[in-house]
Design brief:
Layout lengths: L1 H11 L4 H120 L10
């Protein structure tokens, strides 16, 4: 175990100052490359964010243009449809005022006619029934001799 501690101490404190200088240069080089990579990634990330923001802005502008075009086209059509429906409602109201009482009179007349038809039909069926009964009875009783 003491040998492991001695070996670890030897690596922690290099004996050769030249090795120390090479290790320091290597660490500086790695640190420099890491900083450049970080800087490049940061710049590319900012560029990507700017490009995405520009695309989003263009999409919003196109959408707003499409909405404006749709409004320009649809608003007059909807207004014309509203006017047409209002006119149709006015005509129906007028018809209801003019024809409403007439329709009620027709309905009452139809109900009265239906009641008269039902009464007449019942009388006719009663008469037919009575006639059939009269026809089915023998005129003279038949005697059966045994």
């Amino acid at each position: 175990m003491s040998m492991l501690l001695a070996t670890g101490a030897a690596f922690a404190n290099p004996a050769d100052p030249q090795e120390d200088s090479v290790q320091s240069q290597f660490e500086d080089s790695v640190q420099s490359q890491f900083e450049r990579l970080t800087s490049t990634l940061k710049a590319e990330g900012e560029w990507t964010l700017d490009a995405a923001a520009d695309l989003a802005s263009q999409a919003v502008e196109k959408s707003q243009e499409a909405i404006a075009e749709a409004q320009t086209e649809l608003v007059p059509r909807l207004q014309a449809l509203g006017k047409l429906l209002s006119e149709q409602k006015g005509r129906l109201d007028t018809l209801a005022e003019d024809w409403g009482p007439q329709f009620d009179a027709w309905r009452e007349a139809a109900a009265s006619s239906l009641a008269e038809l039902q009464r007449s039909t019942a009388e006719a069926l009663d008469w037919f029934h009575d006639w059939m009964v009269e026809r089915s009875e023998p005129e003279e009783p038949i005697e059966i001799r045994v």
